[in-house]
Each structure stands twice: as C-alpha cells, then as structure tokens.
Amino acid sequence: MTSIPQDTSGEPNPLRALTLDRLRRRTSMKWRTYPEDVLPVWVAEMDVPLAEPVVRAVTDALALGDTGYPAGTAYAEALAGFAEKRWGWDGLAVERTRIVPDVMLGVVEMLRLVTGAGDAVVVNPPVYPPFFQFVEHMERRVVEAPLGADLRIDLGALEEAFRRAVEGGRWAAYLLCSPHNPTGTVHTADELAAVAALAERYGVRVVADEIHAPVVAAGANFVPYLSVPGAESGLSLMSASKAWNLAGLKAALAVAGPASAADLARLPEEVGHGPSHVGVIAHTAALHDGTGWLDALLAGLDDNRRLLADLLAEHLPAIGYRPAEATYLAWLDCRALGLGDDPAGVFLERGRVAVSPGIDFGTGGVGHVRLNLATSPEVIAEAVRRMGVALG
Ligand SMILES: Cc1ncc(COP(=O)(O)O)c(C=O)c1O
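Above: inputs. Below: predicted complex with pyridoxal-5'-phosphate.
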C-alpha cells in the first residue's frame, strides 16, 4: 500500500502546515464554491500559510497605514533579481516593465496594444480556460493550435494557426502559456526560439503568460520567453501570485522586450490604477525574501507528484498521469474509465471531490480532469479515494 512520505527537509513544508478544518474557514473561491462535504482540489489556490516575509511586509504596511497608491519600481527590481538568480537571465530591464492588476488583465492590455477588434489570438489547447473567455470578451477571435500528443507545442499546428490568423493582412497575437497550464509542460529554449522564428515570419506578436514560472520541479529549467534569440518583440506577464498564493493581493508585471518597449509605453495610464499597493508590497517581499519558502514548497510538490502517481497506479490504474515538470496541477486522462466527456461531473456527484473539468480547457480536454496538487499528502490521498468511490 502506498504510504504518505514523511517530511525530512530542514525548511518546513508549507503544504503540511494547515488542517482541513482550518482551510475550511477560508472564504475564497476554492472553499466556498461547493458545499462542505465536497473536497476541493480544483482552482489554483494553494493550501499553504503565506511565506513569513510576505506576512511581515504586509503586516508592517498595515501597522504603518501604508495603504495608499502604488509607486516606484521595487516589484520590477525584485523580479529582475529573482530572474537573474533563478533563471540566469539578466535581460529583464526595469524600465521596460509596467505594473498591471493581475496576469489576466495584463494579458488583455497587452493584446489590446498589439491587436485590434476582430483580430485573431492563437492559443494552445488544452489551456487555461480564461484564455478563451478573456480573448472573446475583448472581441478577438481565438484560433486554436492544439498541443501535440506529447503535450508539447506542435510547431506544424502553430504555423498553420499563424497562417490562418494573419489571413487578409490582419494583425494577430499568440498567447503562449509558459509553463503550460494544465499540462505542466516546460517549453525548452529550442522550442521557444522556434516559436519566435515562426512568429517573426508571420508577423504574429507573442504575449507570454509566465505566471507559473517559479513553480518548476527539480531538474527542469524554465526559460523566459524574452531571453531566447528572436523574441525581442515579445511581451511577458509575470507575477508572484501563483508561486506564493497571492491571487487576492492584486499585482502583476508586464515586461517588454527591446523591440516592444514602444508598445508597452502606449499602455494607458489608467491601467496603473488597478494593482493594489499592498499587493505590490506582498509580491515584492515574496520575490525578494521568499525563495527559502518557495524551495520548501517545490520539494513538497515533488513529493506530491510522486504520491499521486503511486496512488493512481495502485487504486485507479486506468487513469493516465505523467508527473509534470512545472505548476502544481496534475492533468489526468480519464478516458479509459468510461465516464463520458466530463468525468469531473461524475467525481463531484458520486465521490464528492471537486476537480476541474477538462472540457473547459478546449480541444484535447474531453475525458480529462485537472487536479490541484498544492495541498497536503492526506488531502491528495483522500481525493484519490473519493475518485475511486465515484467509480463504485
Ligand atoms: C496560466 C494562468 N494565467 C493566469 C492565471 C490567473 O492569474 P491572475 O490571477 O494574476 O490573473 C492563472 C491562474 O491560475 C493561470 O494558471
């Protein structure tokens, strides 16, 4: 029988710090969307206490009444320092950054800078559902370039999508998810350079959502899109929000390459009214002082990926799962279970466990579910048990 691994590291694993009773006191989306008898392992919120440097920075700000409007470049400086230490990338120029309210609103603003109404935005399904919703809400057309069977970018499909996107001489953008949600795919430097070359050839502008960048497993290498040759005209969105669980403390950064600086400079002043000053303080502290906490989280996630693989192999071997190199999301192929297009609905109804329905992620999502691994090993074991109950 699979046993839950013991915590042996020096830095405490934040995924083991909170009990379910305590988590159920939370009022956020993860905990309040379903009734109390449902175990929530869906939306990308983490079951962790905040990193101590973040708590201290926010508490100090509140004690001081430092709750006005954001100013300065501390967040961008902290991100530039993090990028250099973590990814060996020294090309993040603070003067080519702007604070935006969050990553998705940043994506919308970047797409507005480089496309017009009716233009196409290429995405790689299965992909984070708001990529469809936000793009359509802003009157752009989604053009799909599905991932290959290996869950990696299919350059042939991408080229075909670029060709369709620019038909009639229209502007077009490519919304790259790096690392990729829900598959956890970490794109290689070669893949990203090939993307940049294709984008250049077709005149497609690349907007990279790099929100999951700090959440990369040991042994995998995140490559910032703007660091690859040929990506100078790209735009990137980064944030501490996924890696440090700060979604409720709104702040993210838009980053321009050397050839897109003039585009970013056209970002309307009003956009700067969205981010929260306290959010900026929290995100800055995370990037600046929160790397010890992040490393403990990453070690805990490695354990959780292994645990899930073992539990599935033992109890639900018909589910396909390849532990990913990044994100805290597990993409589960449930097609062999015979539960139809939406196994998440069956797991919820019969097993009282909430996972994200794969169908929401577009082409390639049918028969799949996404499970959030950013929780305790006990919750993962209970989630698998409940999935088994749903199968009867
Ligand atoms: C790929 C991706 N982009 C954006 C977001 C949302 O980020 P934000 O809350 O900063 O808009 C998420 C959240 O899970 C995500 O997975």
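Residues 55-289 form a domain with the Aspartate Aminotransferase; domain 2 fold (CATH 3.40.640.10).
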